[in-house]
């Protein structure tokens, strides 16, 4: 069973607040969506998978690996894409951004460059290699962020609201592209339409699982709950 | 003074505060180095002498008012009575000199201009303030004061190099952001 | 923003900020002018007792000097050896007294009260085009920026770690600074769209940034 993410009685406390309580989950589907209101614990949950956060209680295993070793050790297995590309892009040019992860994996500068160029060539974007990242559009930047992670060949891709700053056509383009990738996808999204093609959707509320199943049912339940009583 | 200047000054003061919240890194000499003075040198090099000075004055002023923004979460009036008080008081002047020297050298590469500016302002001038402050507060002799403070120099010298590298990188992306390089 | 001010209703809290600052200044000068161990000791005890007015846990605030303890010990040893033990004791008494007294003023005085007390001293800055309400605005903006920059740094750090980044984290200063400069450009535009920092009533809250 090394193809799954398993959580066993996982509880997470941050600053004396219980963010996740007693979660037991087995995530083996290829496309898993994660929805819920702000503060429900979704972002914290996915950060457990690559070791950015450690559980206060309980165990978890990600494809046979223990994230307790920390994010650096998990980087080979789990790729993480965050919400804002401007807060992920560290290097001035596209090629350097792609090379970063490869260098951390131990490749020499020339090998990393070759792999990165190969990657860009496969996606018909070799001409982007020396472009400054900040000259790209928001959608292009996020694409570079995803590439910078994919080039490391992870088994799992986690995306924390990756499309918030993007317009509709860009979102659709990126979603279709992601759905065609071989990796296991775990995506947090406030854009419910994007998750329609996923295999399983988890609805988190106040650190617990309130809904778990096919996108149609869970998303419909969530929408219904949102339409009911709401106060700021 | 234009609104833009006020915003820039607030920004670099906030940068120094944010850098102060990074935990100190142990250096090869065993003396931990903090990231904070990197922001002071950058303020001078990026904003120029006058705005760099005012920006750091803003930072020190808000620390004096009671904000725990110095490395280690220190702040308030107590820090001005401690042995390192000289350094804190020296922040604005360090930025002023760093900016002035960087501007003087603007015909050189930015790496040189920023590096030398950071060294003169962030090491030479700042340590003069630090040593004088130490002597006044503790009543030690000059020689002792210099010896105690000198142990921090190797670690701080790393920041001079970093200031130059960061200034160069930012200049490549946003040339207008480096005030010490406008003819 | 987190400040060191302790929210209480003690007699020290009720004293005006200006008075407390004055007492602090006078004490500083006096302590350095006098050289009597007994006077210094007495003042130190008075300051320590004053911490009790902060409540039952008042004395725990004395631990503010904890990070300085190694340095105190070093200086004490060096001074005893190069001057005399009594000179070293006097130095320690003075330093502790002033650090604790100054800290006490900070703990019992709100930031805005301090600023009001000190504003008159800043009026010379008017001549370089920095009116008091503009100073107040800049202070508020600074305070607003700090958590935003922290959040940017944290996000960058997460992204760095997630791709296996090592110890060369100093590199993050570059995107952090670029983001910060871009942000400040947005703030300037937002300010201009609302008429700029012209009147004392310009609130910082109107300045929107991501």
Give the key terms:
heterotrimer, A: 6-stranded mixed β-sheet, 3-stranded antiparallel β-sheet, 32% helix, B: 183 residues, mainly alpha, Arp2/3 complex 21 kDa subunit ARPC3, 2% strand, globular
CATH topology of chain B: Arp2/3 complex 21 kDa subunit ARPC3
Helix content of chain B: 55-70%
- How many DSSP-defined strands of chain B? 2
Count of separate structural domains of chain B: 1
Report the β-strand fraction of chain B as a percent range.
Answer: under 5%
Ends of chain C: how far apart? 18 Å
Determine Rg of chain C (CA atoms, Å): 23 Å
The CATH architecture of chain B: Orthogonal Bundle
Structural class of chain B: mainly alpha
Average pLDDT of chain B = 90
Q: Helix segment count of chain C?
A: 8
Number of helices of chain B: 7
Largest sheet of chain B: 2 strands, antiparallel
Structure characterization notes:
The complex is a heterotrimer of chains A (232), B (183) and C (210). Chain A has 232 residues and is α/β, with parallel strands linked by helices. Chain A is 32% helix and 25% strand. Chain A is built from seven helices and nine strands, in the order E-E-E-H-E-H-E-H-H-H-E-H-E-E-E-H. The N and C termini of chain A lie far apart (43 Å). The relative contact order of chain A is 0.17. In chain B, strand 1 (25-26) and strand 2 (32-33) form a beta hairpin. Chain B is built from seven helices and two strands, in the order αββαααααα. By secondary structure, chain B is an all-alpha fold. Chain C has 210 residues and is an all-alpha fold. Chain C has helices at residues 11-14, 17-33, 37-50, 69-82, 85-108, 111-118, 132-162, 173-193. Chains B and C meet through helix 1, helix 2, helix 3 and helix 7 of B and helix 4, helix 5, helix 6, helix 7 and helix 8 of C.
């Amino acid at each position: 069973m090394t193809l799954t993410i398993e959580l066993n009685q996982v509880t997470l406390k941050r600053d004396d607040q219980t963010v996740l309580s007693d979660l037991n989950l087995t995530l083996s589907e290829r496309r898993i969506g994660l929805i819920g209101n702000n503060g429900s614990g979704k972002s914290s949950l996915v950060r457990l998978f690559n070791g950015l956060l450690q559980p206060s209680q309980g165990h978890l295993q990600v494809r046979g690996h223990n994230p307790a070793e920390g994010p650096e050790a998990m980087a080979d297995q789990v790729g993480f894409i965050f919400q804002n590309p401007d807060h992920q892009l560290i290097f001035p040019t596209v090629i350097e951004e792609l090379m970063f992860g490869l260098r951390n994996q131990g490749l020499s500068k020339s090998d990393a460059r070759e792999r990165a160029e190969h990657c860009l060539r496969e996606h018909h974007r070799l001409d982007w290699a020396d472009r400054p990242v900040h000259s790209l559009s928001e959608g292009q930047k996020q694409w570079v962020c995803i590439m910078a992670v994919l080039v490391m060949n992870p088994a799992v891709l986690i995306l924390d609201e990756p499309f918030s700053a993007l317009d509709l056509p860009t979102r659709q383009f990126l979603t279709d592209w992601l759905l065609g990738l071989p990796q296991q996808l775990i995506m947090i999204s406030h854009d419910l339409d994007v998750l329609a093609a996923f295999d399983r959707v988890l609805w988190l509320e106040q650190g617990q699982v309130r809904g778990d199943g096919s996108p149609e049912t869970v998303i419909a339940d969530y929408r219904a709950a949102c339409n009911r009583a709401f106060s700021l | 003074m234009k609104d833009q200047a006020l915003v820039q000054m607030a920004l670099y003061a906030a940068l120094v505060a944010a850098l102060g919240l990074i935990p100190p890194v142990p250096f090869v000499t065993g003396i931990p180095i903090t990231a904070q003075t990197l922001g002071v040198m950058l303020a001078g090099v990026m904003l120029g002498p006058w705005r760099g000075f005012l920006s750091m004055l803003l930072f020190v002023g808000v620390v004096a008012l009671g904000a725990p923004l110095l490395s280690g979460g220190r702040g308030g009036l107590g820090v001005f009575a401690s042995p390192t008080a000289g350094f804190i008081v020296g922040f604005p002047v360090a930025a002023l000199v760093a900016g002035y020297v960087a501007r003087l050298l603007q015909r050189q590469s930015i790496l040189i201009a920023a590096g030398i500016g950071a060294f003169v302002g962030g090491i030479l001038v700042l340590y003069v303030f630090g040593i004088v402050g130490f002597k006044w507060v503790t009543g030690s002799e000059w020689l002792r004061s210099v010896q105690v403070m000198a142990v921090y120099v190797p670690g701080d010298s790393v920041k001079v190099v970093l200031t130059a590298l960061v200034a160069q990188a930012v200049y490549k992306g946003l040339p207008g952001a480096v005030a010490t390089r406008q003819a | 923003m987190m400040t060191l001010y302790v929210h209480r209703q003690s007699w020290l809290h009720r004293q005006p900020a200006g008075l407390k600052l004055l007492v602090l200044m006078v004490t500083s000068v006096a302590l350095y002018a006098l050289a009597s161990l007994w006077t210094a000791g007495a003042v130190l005890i008075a300051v320590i007792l004053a911490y009790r007015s902060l409540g039952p846990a008042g004395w725990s605030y004395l631990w503010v000097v904890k990070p300085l303890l190694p340095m105190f010990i070093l200086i004490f040893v060096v001074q005893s050896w190069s001057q005399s033990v009594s000179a070293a004791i006097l130095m320690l008494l003075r330093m502790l007294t002033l650090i604790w007294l100054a800290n006490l003023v900070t703990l019992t005085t709100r930031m805005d009260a301090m600023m009001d007390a000190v504003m008159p001293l800043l009026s010379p800055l008017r001549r370089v085009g920095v009116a008091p309400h503009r100073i107040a605005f800049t202070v508020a903006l600074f305070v607003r920026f700090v958590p935003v920059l922290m959040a940017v740094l944290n996000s960058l750090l997460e992204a760095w770690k997630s791709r296996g980044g090592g110890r060369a984290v100093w590199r993050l200063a570059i995107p952090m600074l670029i983001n910060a400069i871009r942000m400040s450009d947005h703030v300037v535009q937002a300010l201009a769209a609302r008429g700029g920092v012209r009147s004392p009533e310009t609130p910082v809250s109107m300045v929107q940034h991501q």
